[in-house]
Design goal:
Elements lengths: L18 H14 L1 H27 L6 H5 L3 H31 L1 H8 L3 H35 L13 H26 L2 H19 L4 H9 L2 H5 L14 H25 L3
Helix pairs in contact: 1-6, 2-4, 2-6, 4-6, 4-7, 4-8, 6-7, 7-8, 7-11
Amino acid sequence: MTTEAQAPAVAMPPAEASLPNVVRSEWTKFWSLRSTHWTLGTLFFVAYGLSVLLTWVTARSWDDASPEDRASFDALDVSLGGGLFLGTLIITVLGVLVISGEYSTGGIRTTLTAVPERMTLLGAKAIVWVSVAFVASLLIAFGSFFLGQRFLAAEDIDASLGDPGVFRAVLGAALFITACGLFAFALGALLRRTAAGITAALGGLLVLPSLGALLPGDWGETVNDYLLTNAGGQIVEVEPDPDALGPWTGYVVFLLWCIGVLAIAAALMQRRDA
């Protein structure tokens, strides 16, 4: 019995495999997936829905709130809290899937045949994903803020973007979610398996920072401040913890974690087979 020979895949010429062209190709590929539209649509619907629900309940029960609750009330946290947590989860999962999905289906072999320069491919995927994640995060953060404040305004407990620290915190929420997506993308490229990537990403973003609080002594407190979301999360706070890293310093530390993991993934991608 003979087998029919398959024609070898032809790589793109260097001019066609330039970074801008590969970015366009990856952009088209990303939006051609039906799951992309469903996932992002669900994200917006639930994030906005949670903002409306939480702020509506808060406004309705404000007259019964205790003096302690009123003193510690944070209008931004009420309107952003649900959307921020949900956005982080969904963007994290989608960030892993953006690259691990091709490895699980074997489609990465075809992609690498067409674009043999792996750093160009990885860079293009990262550019597309970070762009989408940032725009989606901006819509989540500012949309949830404005929707939520409309309900809180009925009780005159709303916040304004002009209030001290509010604009930076709302923008910071978008930047924070985007960084979580980049961290997840980097782990997806590093581990190349969806389940392992999602587990590692959620563990790194949610579990590891919590465990850092258990570290003893002054050195433990210092290490804890530099752990991923402990550092990056300060940018979301209207009044950041004075004993922690500053909002922008902490966010830069968070980005360095993301870039470090991505750099390791890039180095291994050059050495490993598809």
